[in-house]
Amino acid sequence: MNGATMAFPSELISYLRKAQRAAALTGAGVSQESGLRTFRDAQVGLWAQYRPEDLATPEAFARDPKLVWDWYAMRREKVKTVEPNPGHYALAEMARRIPDFTLITQNVDGLHRRAGSPQVIELHGNLAQVRCSVCGQFVERWDDNGVDVPRCAACGGLLRPHVVWFGEALPRAALEAAVEAARTCDVFFSIGTSGLVQPAASLAVAAHNRGALLVEINAEPTPLTERCDYSFRGRSGEVLPALVRAVWG
Ligand code: BV8
Ligand code: ZN
Prior knowledge:
Structural class: alpha/beta
Order of helices and strands: HEHHHHHEHEEEEHEHEEH
Helix content: 25-40%
Number of strands: 9
Radius of gyration: 19 Å
Distance between the termini: 20 Å
Number of helices: 10
Strand content: 15-25%
Bound molecules: ligand BV8, zinc ion
Oligomer: single chain
Shape: elongated
């Protein structure tokens, strides 16, 4: 299905025109059209031999901090070279159209903010931020001599990316805000996510159980698909702009 010729059910269009409160959960699929690999995509180059879920763990960092630091340094550099895509901009537009719109993302690339989304709940942190793995102090600048993992000037601890690794708790305030949005919204969008990672994936179910309309936009079916009121199979960079055009002109 491509966005240009998409037709949306009229009852969905009228529902969205009246919606007062909406929440959207985005995953790596939304950034895929900006040129960022999803977690499902195979990695390339010298990272091809590693699975993201094996690198994004405290155990991997403890075992080989340099490998994990370099993987994030590579991703930080890559994010600097990409731009938000029409899917990001369509979500920023939705926030201007729906009175109470909460954008929740699993992505750590910061592209929603760059696309102008007013406030973004970053459930899994942000690649661009670095903190000390010991004292937790955030660090703006560090010298990476390419040999050792940079250390904290205050306590000498190893620096690490400010992202949530598997097995680590999500930031409490972010998770609480996301749960509150899921509980109170009229419509919940699940976009570009395989719906496999918890607790993010449970937000859509919580919203649906509270009576929200559940709308999925994803390139392939997910464990959420059969629960959805609407599930659009397609690229978020095409479907989202088409939906915004159909609802708000
Ligand atoms: C926690 C930051 C507890 C790092 C990430 C067994 C059962 C259930 C749960 C668990 C379990 N074993 C372990 C767990 C818990 C675990 C978990 O869920 N594991 C899964 C894998 C089973 N969760 C955790 O560990 C979480 N923490 O539970 O802590 C705790 C509590 C208290 C105290 C201490 C501990 C932490 C999870 C967060 C991990 N960090 N990211 C980094 O980025 O490096 S997760 C990371 O992977 C991403 O952030 C994202 O969330 C996830 C990848 O998922 P997606 O974004 O959905 O991407 P994916 O590639 O999967 O899918 C993309 C989709 O897009 C696809 O469906 C594709 O078809 C579609 N698509 C592609 N292109 C497009 C598209 N769609 C539209 N348009 C396109 N163009
Ligand atoms: Zn420190």
